[in-house]
Amino acid sequence: MEISLLRIAVSIVSIVVVITWAWRVVNWVWLRPKRLERCLREQGLNGNSYRLLFGDLKESSKMISQAKSKPINFTLDIAPRVFPFVHQVVSNYGMSTITLVFLI
């Protein structure tokens, strides 16, 4: 009987630890960034919405490769060539924009 009570107690403690750990991970990966995004939008900052783990990296790398494949224009506006993703975000949303970058 003592072994079964000990086993039940260990099981309950381990379940509580796993649930606590899972909650912290969900909070860190999803809830906190979405909360931050909502607060920044309430302050008037616009931008792309948060996407889990990789965010805008795929879109950004695609734009960089497209920009590098085209020849350089001899103008003073080099922003589309150097930072195409940032240039597009600023063009779409204005100077008061946010881009959420979280490195995991």
Describe the structure in brief.
This protein has 104 residues and is mainly α. Helices cover 65% and strands 4% of the residues. The protein has four helices and two strands; from the N terminus they run H-E-H-H-H-E.
Chain-wise SSE layout:
Blueprint: H1 2-42, E1 46-47, H2 57-69, H3 79-82, H4 84-93, E2 97-98
Polypeptide structure, described:
The chain crosses the membrane at residues 6-31. It comes from Quercus suber (Cork oak). Keywords: Membrane, Transmembrane, Transmembrane helix. This is Cytochrome p450 cyp72a219. The protein is mainly alpha-helical and 104 residues long. It has one domain. It is 65% helix and 4% strand. It has four helices and two strands. It has helices spanning 2-42, 57-69, 79-82, 84-93, and strands at 46-47, 97-98. It is elongated, with a radius of gyration of 23 Å. The mean pLDDT is 83.
User: Could you tell me the number of beta strands?
Assistant: 2
Tell me the domain tally.
Answer: 1
Give, in order, the helices and strands. Answer: HEHHHE
Intertermini distance: 46 Å
Question: Can you summarize the main beta sheet?
Answer: 2 strands, parallel
Average pLDDT, rounded to a whole number, is 83
- Total of helices: 4
Task: Name the descriptors.
2 strands; transmembrane; mainly alpha; membrane; single chain; Cytochrome p450 cyp72a219; elongated
